[in-house]
Design goal:
Layout: H1 3-10, E1 24-35, E2 38-46, E3 57-58, E4 61-63, H2 71-83, E5 90-95, E6 99-100, E7 105-114, E8 127-134, H3 135-140, E9 144-150, E10 174-183, E11 186-189, H4 190-205
Parallel strand pairs: 1-7
Antiparallel strand pairs: 1-2, 1-4, 2-3, 2-8, 5-7, 6-7, 9-10, 10-11
Length: 206
C-alpha cells in the first residue's frame, strides 16, 4: 500500500475529539419561559438525597442513553423526565457550544423554550425545587469570578526513569475560572453558570 492509497482510506471522515469514545457524554437544556411578558431562565435544585451534587442549582439534563439518537434528543428527554412535561412543550431547541471537561466528560448544552409551565410536575426523585430568574438580571449582572488551579500528581510507581527530567519534569499546570451568580439566596455556579454566561455572551454579541 502506498501513501496516497493509505490516506485515501481515511479521507472524507468528520474529525472528532481524540479519545472521545472513552468520555461520558451529557446533554443539558437551558430552559427559557415566559412569565408575565418577561423572559425568565428556569433552574432546578437537585434533590437533597442524591448522591452526586445534592442541593446544587442546575439545568435539566443528564447522561446520554444508548437509546438516544443524538445529544438534542437526550437534552429533551431528560428535561421531560425531570420537569414532568411533554416533548411538545419544549420548542425551538438549538445547540450551544459543547464543552470537554477535565473530568473525562463531554457536555452538550442546548437552549429552548418551555411553552407550558402550568402543568409542570417536577420529579421528586431528582428535583428538590424549581425557580426562575429574569433574563434581564443576567444581562445586567456580571458574575463573580474565582480561579481554580490544577496540579499534576503522578501515581505511585510512575516510571519517571522513562521521561527526560525524571522526577523534576516540568509538568504543565492549568487554571480555570469559576463563575458565580447570586440571586435571591440561590447560588448559580459551576457548569450551569458557565453555560449560562456563554448564552448571555451570545445574546450580547448579537
Amino acid at each position: 500500500m502506498n501513501a496516497d492509497k493509505l490516506l485515501d482510506e481515511i479521507s472524507g471522515r468528520k474529525p472528532g475529539i481524540l479519545g472521545e469514545n472513552g468520555f461520558l457524554r451529557f446533554a443539558v437544556l437551558l430552559p427559557l419561559v415566559d412569565m408575565d411578558g418577561e423572559i425568565h431562565v428556569l433552574f432546578e435544585v437537585r434533590a437533597s438525597h442524591l448522591r452526586r451534587q445534592p442541593g446544587e442549582v442546575c439545568f435539566p439534563g443528564g447522561k446520554m442513553d444508548k437509546g438516544d439518537p443524538d445529544e438534542k434528543h437526550c437534552a429533551i428527554r431528560e428535561t421531560t423526565e425531570e420537569l414532568g412535561i411533554f416533548e411538545n412543550d419544549i420548542q425551538k431547541v438549538i445547540p450551544l457550544d459543547y464543552m470537554v471537561s477535565a473530568y473525562g466528560t463531554i457536555i452538550y448544552p442546548f437552549v429552548g423554550i418551555i411553552a407550558n409551565t402550568e402543568d409542570m410536575r417536577p420529579n421528586e426523585d431528582e428535583v428538590g425545587e424549581i425557580f426562575t430568574v429574569p433574563l434581564s438580571f443576567f444581562l445586567n449582572t456580571k458574575p463573580d469570578i474565582h480561579t481554580i488551579h490544577y496540579h499534576v500528581k503522578p501515581e505511585d510507581g510512575f516510571p519517571f526513569d522513562l521521561i527526560v527530567g525524571g522526577e523534576n519534569y516540568k509538568w504543565q499546570t492549568r487554571q480555570m475560572d469559576e463563575y458565580f451568580y447570586h440571586y435571591d439566596g440561590k447560588v448559580i455556579w459551576g457548569l450551569t453558570a458557565r453555560v449560562l454566561l456563554h448564552f448571555i455572551d451570545l445574546i450580547k454579541n448579537k
